[in-house]
């Protein structure tokens, strides 16, 4: 529907209004459905199963975090050693020495 009032077309505003109305309807239906669905309380056996599951999840997560931390530490140490050796190989010759990787020192 195109209605011109003072050179303004209302097609855009009616389309926008219908989009807003559709969104409002979806939100209203979704909210009413979520309020109507409520879970029954867990039995003691069910709660124990949930607690056991969460305990196992925590153990797995702790193990995974420890492994990742260890791997990151190893990668860091390896990169640090590599860059230390590069630095020392470039510095030692400036003083007429050579770098010895086994002792991590400049030797004459």
Word description of this protein:
By secondary structure, this protein is mainly alpha-helical. It contains two helices and four strands, in the order E-E-H-H-E-E. The strands form two sheets. The protein has a two-stranded antiparallel ribbon with strand order 1-2. The radius of gyration is 34 Å and the shape is elongated. About 6% of the residues have low confidence.
Give the key terms:
108 residues, mainly alpha, two-stranded antiparallel ribbon, 9% strand
What is the compact description of this entry?
This protein is mainly alpha-helical and 108 residues long.
Annotate the secondary structure layout.
Layout: E1 4-5, E2 8-9, H1 11-36, H2 44-91, E3 98-100, E4 105-107
Antiparallel strand pairs: 1-2, 3-4
Give, in spatial order, the strands making up the sheet with the most strands: 1-2
The gross shape turns out to be: elongated
The main sheet comes to:
2 strands, antiparallel
How would you spell out the order of helices and strands? Answer: EEHHEE
Helix content: 55-70%
Question: What structural class do the secondary elements suggest?
Answer: mainly alpha
Q: Count up the helices.
A: 2
Total strand segments: 4
- The separation of the N and C termini measures 92 Å
Gyration radius (Cα, Å) is 34 Å
Low-pLDDT sequence parts: 6-11
- Sheet-strand content, in percent, reads 5-15%
Mean pLDDT over the full residue set: 83
